[in-house]
Description:
This protein has helices spanning 3-20, 24-33, 40-45, 88-99, 104-117, 158-161; strands spanning 47-52, 55-60, 66-69, 78-84, 126-133, 146-152, 170-174, 182-186.
Amino acid sequence: xxxxxxxxxxxxxxxxxxxxxxxxxxxxxxxxxxxxxxxxxxxxxxxxxxxxxxxxxxxxxxxxxxxxxxxxxxxxxxxxxxxxxxxxxxxxxxxxxxxxxxxxxxxxxxxxxxxxxxxxxxxxxxxxxxxxxxxxxxxxxxxxxxxxxxxxxxxxxxxxxxxxxxxxxxxxxxxxxxxxxxxxxxx
Length: 187
């Protein structure tokens, strides 16, 4: 490499590094997005995406097993969820349906029917962590009002797992016997 080429490359490096680094607002969004994951190692390697307007954008690529959905700053309150990568087909389909105007219960029921028909992949079990705060949340993580973890267990029943089917402190089964069956774990 010539001395001139080296000098040109050396001059470009700071600009390239600055362009690749997320700005302070994106760094804050990433830090809050990965907050539900208990392990700092997995927080550091999680992929982070966020809805901006009608588009989903990548805030950070990740090499770890978790994908995190950053809070939508345009929505009231605060919500962040991080799920195991094996749930991505299920979650991506939910985002696709939402973009088509299929929301709420209809969105979940559509995906459940697709799982039952074998046209939507669902792992035999997978983990999700989430945190929520109500309207007026100040950004203080100590003020988060709800933190829960979910273990997706498609088609599991209360009898299979020996869990109650009503909300309780600790673990309970929601949507038992369905494609969307999952164990809710609340502190």
